[in-house]
Amino acid sequence: MYKRLRVGVVSYLNTKPFLYGIKRSSLMDRVELIEAYPSKIAAMLQNNELDLGLLPVAVIPQIPNAKVITNYCIGAVGEVASVAIFSGVPMDQIQTVILDYQSRTSVNLAKILLRDFWKQPVEFLPASPDFQNQIKGTTAAVVIGDRALEQLKIATYSYDLATAWVSHTGLPFVFAAWVANKDLGADFEDAFNKASADGLSHIDQVVAENPYPTYDLKAYYTNNISYDLDDAKRKGMALFLSLLEQSG
Predict the structure, then answer these.
(1) From first to last of its 248 residues, what are the pLDDT tens digits of the chain?
(2) Domain identity same for 195 and 222
(3) Same structural domain for residues 135 and 118?
(4) Residue 90 dihedral angles phi and psi, to the nearest 5°
(5) 93 and 158: one domain?
(6) Is 160 helix (H, G, I), strand (E, B) or coil?
(7) CB-CB neighbours of 215 under 10 Å
(8) Helices 38-46/104-116 angle, 10° precision
(9) Which of 149, 169, 189 is the last residue of a domain?
(10) What residue numbers bound the domain in which 113 lies?
(11) What is the reported pTM?
């Protein structure tokens, strides 16, 4: 018996196409899928409790022997919808921003954009589990994932972080990439790539399997999320990591 590779995947709607392909592939004989939120996957990969994970890109420099694999990611070339600053007042009136605890990439992106794009000085606060209820007055919050799609329905103001990044830099943004902390072998990487591609070629089936009245998932998968990890996205990822390093 060989040891199954431990693969961490984010339990958000935007990963469902990947899961669709992986779960219907021969990879299931070789992997153990572990679903968690982004920062938990980052910690597990850092502690060698995973072999591969869909990792928030902000954490890549902290992973020993980190290697980005596959041609796919969770990225955006415009409005991403599921990562935003939500507020009851316009941006120039925001004084405090609560930071979602589920992803370091999104909160670091928010910090960079608030400083360099919106040029809005704010105080940052850590989030409690029910932090969306604290969005009131001059207190805003970074909300990500499925909860952000729900927040879109009720928020007075929403500031999409991918849209702002593209406006600020002219480059797409990568929120998460498949990162290994060891060599997994060319055959595994090829099989994983093919499984991901297969899932992305069955978007209609993914939508049918995941009824979600809050947001149009077909539009989300085809217009908001951009899954190809192309050269432009790699440039955007490199710029973000460079800005992050400069920020200390």
Answers:
(1) 458 999 999 888 999 999 999 999 999 999 999 998 888 898 999 999 999 999 989 999 999 899 999 999 999 999 999 999 999 999 999 999 999 877 789 999 999 999 999 999 999 999 988 899 999 999 999 999 899 999 999 999 999 999 999 999 999 999 999 999 999 999 999 999 999 999 999 999 999 999 999 999 999 999 999 999 999 999 999 999 999 998 86
(2) yes
(3) yes
(4) -60, 160
(5) yes
(6) strand
(7) 18
(8) 110
(9) 169
(10) 83-169
(11) 0.94
